[in-house]
Structure formats: C-alpha cells, structure tokens
Amino acid sequence: MNLKFRRLNPIKLQLKLTILIMFLIVFSTGISSYFVSRFEFVRLEEKIESDLYNVAGIIADTPLIQKNLYEKNEQAIQQYVEHQLESLIDVEIITIADMEGIRFGHPNSDRLGERFVGGDELKVISEGAKYTSVATGTLGRSVRAFAPVYYQNEQVGFVMAAHLFDDVLLARRNVELNIIIYTLIGIVFGSMGAIVIAIIIKDNLLGLEPHEIVQLYREKNAMLKSLHEGILAIDDKGLITMMNDSAIKILGIKDTDVVGKHINLLFPTSKLLRVLETGVAEYDRGQKINGAHVMTNRVPVLEGNRIVGAIGTFRDRTEVVAMAEEITGVKQIIEALRANTHEFMNKLHVIMGLLEMGDDSSTKAYIIDLKESHDMIHEMVVEKIGNPMISALLLGKLNRAKEESVKLYLSEDSSFKQVDDRLGSQVVIIIIGNLIENAIEAIKRSNQSNGMVDVYLNDLGPEIIIQVTDNGVGIEASQISRIFRRGYSTKPGSNGIGLDIVNANVIRLGGKIEVDSEVGEGSTFTVTFPVEEI
Length: 534
Prior knowledge:
Layout: H1 13-60, H2 63-70, H3 74-87, E1 93-98, E2 103-105, H4 122-127, E3 131-137, E4 140-151, E5 154-164, H5 165-204, H6 210-226, E6 230-235, E7 240-243, H7 245-251, H8 263-266, H9 272-278, E8 282-289, E9 292-303, E10 306-316, H10 317-328, H11 330-357, H12 360-384, H13 388-403, E11 407-410, H14 425-446, E12 452-458, E13 463-470, H15 498-508, E14 512-518, E15 522-530
Parallel strand pairs: 11-12
Antiparallel strand pairs: 1-2, 1-5, 3-4, 4-5, 6-7, 6-10, 8-9, 9-10, 12-13, 13-15, 14-15
C-alpha cells in the first residue's frame, strides 16, 4: 500500500508574528493580572482588617462605652452600637461584651444577654490583646477585630468589629472583574497592535517569508562564491558592506576584515564614491586598484529615487584578454603565426650561416630540401583541409610541436574539405588548437624523447569527427570529470579555461566529447558533431 503525504504549507510570517506577539501579550498580561490581583486582594484584606481594627479601638476607647460597660448599662450600649452601624460602611457587626463574654451590644438586639459565639474572644479576655481573626458567629462567617475595654485601668470587657466574609468575597469578585475587564481591553488593543506590527515587519521584508529569505541568502552566497568576478559593495556613507572571495584574490588583500571600513581607506583609487554622487552607471572601465589592472563595472543601488549605495564588479584585465583570445580562437592563430615565424627565422639563420661560409652548393641543397619538404607538408595539409584558417593553424602547430621536439601527424585518412557555416571555422580552430596544445603539454610533462601527437579530422560521414591522440602522461580516471571545469589545470601559469571553452562549444552545438586515457600511456580526445544537428 502506497501512502502519500502532502507537505503542509508553512505558516506565513505575518501570522507567525501575530500569534507570537499575541501570545506574549496574553502571557505577560495574564502574569501581570495574577500578581496585580494578588496584590489587590492582600491590600483589600489589609484595608478591611485595618478599618475594623481602628473601629474596634476607637469604640473601646470611648468613655461612654467604658462607663456603661462597667455599669452593665445594656440600653445605652445598644443605642450606641446601632448608631455606629448606621454611619459605618464596611463594618456590618459591632459586638460589645463583658469579661464573661455576655453581649451588651449587638446588631441584633434579640441576641443581647447571650454569650459571645466564635471562640476567638478568649485571647482578648485573658490577655487584653488587640488582634484580628476569621471566625463564624451568629450572623455568619466574618473577619473580626478585637480590642479590650478598660475603665479606671481595669478591663471590663471587649469590643469586636466585624465584616461579613460574604461581603469580603463580593469585594474580591469586584476586584477580579475589574482586572479581567482591563486585561481583556489590553489584550484586544495589544492584538490590534500585534497585527499592525506584523504587517509593518512583513512590508519591511518586502513581503518575503523566512524560508524565502534564507533561500535568497544561500543563493546569494553560492553566486558570490561561484563568480570569478570580484564584487565590492558600499552603502551611502561609503562604508564597505560586502566583498566576495574573488575580489579579495584579485586585489591581493591580506586583511579580509574589510566590512564596515570606509572605501577610501582601503582603495583610494576606487571610483564608487563618484557613482554615489552622480548616480550614473559606468561600464567596462579600465582601472588600477591596489596595483591590479582590472576591467570594472560600477552601478548605483537605488531605493526608489534615492541612492543608497553602489556596487562594483571587476575582473583581472590579463585574464579578460586571455579569455577573449581563447573564446575567439585568436590565441590559437597567434600561436600558429609565432611558431611559423620562429621556424622561418631558424631556417633563415641556417641559410645566412651557409652563405657566410661560402658553401653555395650546401645552401642550394638546403633551400631545395626546404622547398620540397614545405611543398610536401603544404600539399598534404591543403589537400586534406579545405579551410585556409584551419590549414594555417595546423601548419603553425606542426612548427610549434617541432619546437618542443614533438612529432605531430595529420592522419592520412583525414578529410576536412569545408566547414559547415553553422559550425564555423572559429569553433573548429578553438577545439583543434586547444586539444593539440594540451597534447603537446602532456608530452612535455612525460619527459620522453619520442613524443607524438596524431590528429584525425573527418567530415565525410554522418558525424564530424575531431580526434587528437598523444602518448603523454595520461590522466587519472578520477580526474577526467574535472578537466573540463573552469579554472582546473595541471599546467603552471594556466588559467584553466581552454578545455572549459572547448566543452562549452561542443555542448552548445549538440556534440559530445569523449576522453580515453591511461596514466603513463597517453590520451585520446574525440569530439563528434552530428551533421544534421549542427
């Protein structure tokens, strides 16, 4: 049974922020409300106890109560109690009793003459102490405050002022209700604020989600590392905000901690500040920075119509020229011309030497031999190769190989009469020139005296074939996949772009390139182009 799971869409950033902020608001408000309510409850209880304590103390110190309690004047005491209860708000019970606990004042006159109920009065009777307690009396559970009554320095009884516990609970509920109302109001306005903040943050992030920002960051880092161009960015104050590894390498910077420094301190000849001032982009400008000759492009960074920075991209000028020569095939033609010139000068020097020696017969024989050899090679190449530029390249490579004591052969069964316009002689020159040059270099590294390079060209069948074989050092199997990468080379001083350009042209034209190599035996590079797909 196959189970398929659909990946759930990630929660949007705006919703995440809203939920997070609302959670924080609810959590912090709830914690605050809890402690506020605790504080208010304690404050309420302390206030009630304090009020009761004060009322009980004031009544106990009243001379009227002291004298009448001493004289057991129940009527006078009861009238006083009833009068006080009418004027007091938070005191529902006032009880006045003698040392036996017999009531002489009570909210309910029917309870007069009865013994005090609750059991918490013993301390005020026995010790004459002032205190508060919670107990249940005839009117219900209440918070009580006790105070002793003295007459002529002798305790004659006590006063108890009380607040019914149900009323205390009601007051606490009112406090809770107010706190809940204000808490809900805070949560509502806080939630509205959370939504507004989330919208503002999302707008500031250009509407991007976190995973999109992370992806952009990763892509940016990957692009910066993959680029051979140096990249240097500054903000509107001229402070460096970014510099990639290629820029550090091209400019030869040792201290890589450049972010945050002013560009004039590190690169006084930089023209990025001019772009900041003018807002005009500059392209393909030659420049010297830190002693490096570069070709640079400079553009402003805009936010709306405001310039907020500038970015410069640049490449080593020498590398640009070398790449241009590789791409256009000019390098191969120049190498062929140089080799031809060198070979011609060598032969000319031999002729001049023979003439100076006065050996006319040897001179004539040498010239005739040169002519016959030249005619033979020229006839062989021209007969098999119809394109004059490719013929010139091969003749130049013959001389180049001779300079390196390498024998270069054009296979007898080769035939390359004309080049398809869609393929172009320039592409063929790039491919043949680079493959022959690499073969010669491979033989040079093998340090052998019988180096040979065999070139085979054929355009008679359904495929155009370009094949170059050498008996050089060969290539390890693990390295074959790397030789077509830009920058990879085993030749000292090489920029490693020759085979990369060859491979790019082959792929572009729908062809393929195969490598057959064995370490110590040599290599064969075979390039084929289906004629109908070119």
